[in-house]
Design goal:
about 250 residues, alpha+beta, seven-stranded antiparallel beta sheet, six-stranded antiparallel beta sheet, 6 helices, about 20% helix, about 35% strand
Amino acid sequence: MCTLTWQQTLSGYRLLFTRDEQRTRELAELPIFDEVRQAIYPIDPQGQGTWIATNQNGETWCLLNLYQKNQAAELGYSATSARKQKLLSRGQIILACLSAQTDMSLPRLQDYCGKYKFSPFTLCYFPKVLTPQNWQPIYWQWDGIQVTAQQLPNMFTSSGKAFTKVLSHRQAVFSQFSRQQSNDYLWQFHTSHQPSKSHTSVCMHRADAKSVSITEVTSSTTVQQMKYWNTSPCQAQYSKPTARLIINR
């Protein structure tokens, strides 16, 4: 359960990513700079992977679960055997992309997913901005059998419950905020509770889960920056991130 938004800037791009998790899940570790991979990313203690990372080359990856696919059916084995088989954490996918030192192309990602069994996911990729007029982020989706690729819309979301309703609502709210004259409508969108503080609001609150963090990545010709707030977006102060890391390019 996550929401991603992005916008192109004069010298690069900016994105915001809200992470939603079960209230019982262990808090993530704050972003680090990985000297080997030359990248910045937070760490999920449970899977020892990450859901968002940006590197010195100006690339960024974001990972969302693909709940609307029936994992057991798509992988071709029964739900009972699926529960018994320990799947590799999806958080390892971004680390594999970082280690590859280049974008994980569709054929390479297909081979990787075929080798390691993953639950369905969406992997969003922001390439380095070389020619602004031709720059376009994309996303790959693994449904348990194959990987497909499409252009990434400016708002992308996932939800483990009532996905169709949640998607429709968040699209409408995003359209509303994007029409405003505010210079920071992305932040306002991610911190909003329209129409109420609930499972459909972008800053999500349910009895069993909630939005637990928000991450901002900004990319320019000279700098990659990640800001991270380890709290619900509605409680975050933009001027006071929990962590702020920079890679000079």
